[in-house]
Amino acid sequence: MASAKCEPTPTLPVRDMARVLLVDHDPAARLILRTVLRAGGYGVDTAATAIEAIDLLDSEEYALVLSDLHMESPEAGLQVISHARMMDYRPATALITSWREQMEAQRGLGTMLVEPENVPELLEQVADMIGERASRQLVREMRFRN
After folding, report:
1. pTM of this prediction?
2. Between 143 and 105, the higher pLDDT residue
3. d(CA 126, CA 92)
4. Residue 13 parent element (H or E)
């Protein structure tokens, strides 16, 4: 009796996870958002302060930086976003806040603000920001080649 040869099941290529830096002084908010983002398929590093976030930005590369607006100081979130925008790898950036009046006041900065209360919308916004960043990078690379 001939035995059947068992062929190994081909494995799918592992998709590179987009890396997100999540910055928030509130441990509960960090845990919840990190869990949601990881469930959405993103690699997530976290920081509790602007200083921690800046150190991570200088040592790692991120597709997206999400920062709480108010942390150890009222300007801390904006400092993180400003530093991220100076990086050569140009991550997408956004401030996270649940305060509608703060959102309206900060819209003039050109920084997209997301609300963590609406999980599907948050994940959609994260995917959109990372996609837009990837498109900008592709355009820059094409210009560089020509």
Report:
1. 0.74
2. 143
3. 9
4. none
